[in-house]
Amino acid sequence: MIRAAALAIVLAVLALPASAQHQHAGMDGMPGMDMPAPAVSAPAPAASTMGDMAMPARAASGAPMPMPMPMHGDAASAAHVMPHDTQPGLHPGTMTGMPAQDDAAQPSARPMAMGRMQGGPPPADARSPDYSDGVAPSHLPGMDMGESARFALLQFDQLEAFAGRDEHGQRWELHGWYGNDDDKLLLRSEGERIRSRVSEGDVEALWSHAVAAYWDTTLGARHDLGDGPRRDWLAIGMQGLAPYWFEVEATAYVGPSGRTAARLRADYEVLFTQQLILQPELEANLYGRDDPRRGIGRGLSDLQFGLRLRYEIRREFAPYVGVQFVHRMGRTADLVRAAGSPVTDRQLVAGVRLWF
């Protein structure tokens, strides 16, 4: 009886249609999920479809179809644009293992046009090879950052009134320039006015040339003002920013009849805040020979030390108060003492520092 039942089941299975047998074969019809197919005489279906996407059918011989492996990065990009002769039967831009479709039937299957990547030479139809889109560089004043651009500045470092033990008056110290980063026309002047007249002072016109990142050489002329005969000098020197942010200026002078002189200056800025600044300043003057008519002796003539505290309401305008010490030395001290003036003087000062 058991044998009879088993024989009936076998006959029932053989009696099923071929299509039903294929559907019950599991996931054999899906690419990459192929299982060895039972040997049947019925032909395999041509293809099964799912929506608009064509699915490949099992080969008539029953051999499994390979499953495409996922690709990433450059490999995926290369496969996406691989030409016909490297992947027979594939349309450019289609997935591996998918049959090519008619472009007219499925417009979305057309290959995607890739845009030009950034960098490299400009395209042939570019309006301007430098990508400026035809816009010319700006010529607004002060916006030219080239080394050849010329600028101008006039700055009063000291414009003050002073009160000493025996003398009261006004003092000025200024510098200005016109030129570019390499070469400038430089103007410097300093002096004192006592009892409504200029007692001493000088004016210098120099050509400044950059020789290093923070240093310039100077060459020009100096003209003395004030009491006594006027003196003219040929000036040559150097100025710049020394280590630790010291502003330094050193100038040598040569005049007629073998007259020589030198001036050394240095100043520094101590920032308590961005607006409250203390500025110490030191100056020394030397002369190669006596000039009694101007009250000057040879050697180290005088030392001047100033200490000024300013408040920058704006960078261009800063009132200040301070103190100035003046000490005459050597032969100059003898001449000053003989004229009845103090050798050492302490002066209180108040003024304004401005530039434009």
UniProtKB/TrEMBL annotation:
<dbReference type="InterPro" id="IPR007939">
    <property type="entry name" value="Cu-R_B_prcur"/>
</dbReference>
<dbReference type="GO" id="GO:0005507">
    <property type="term" value="F:copper ion binding"/>
</dbReference>
<protein>
    <recommendedName>
        <fullName>Copper resistance protein B</fullName>
    </recommendedName>
</protein>
<keyword id="KW-0732">Signal</keyword>
<feature type="region of interest" description="Disordered">
    <location>
        <begin position="100"/>
        <end position="131"/>
    </location>
</feature>
<dbReference type="GO" id="GO:0006878">
    <property type="term" value="P:intracellular copper ion homeostasis"/>
</dbReference>
<dbReference type="GO" id="GO:0009279">
    <property type="term" value="C:cell outer membrane"/>
</dbReference>
<feature type="signal peptide">
    <location>
        <begin position="1"/>
        <end position="20"/>
    </location>
</feature>
<dbReference type="Pfam" id="PF05275">
    <property type="entry name" value="CopB"/>
</dbReference>
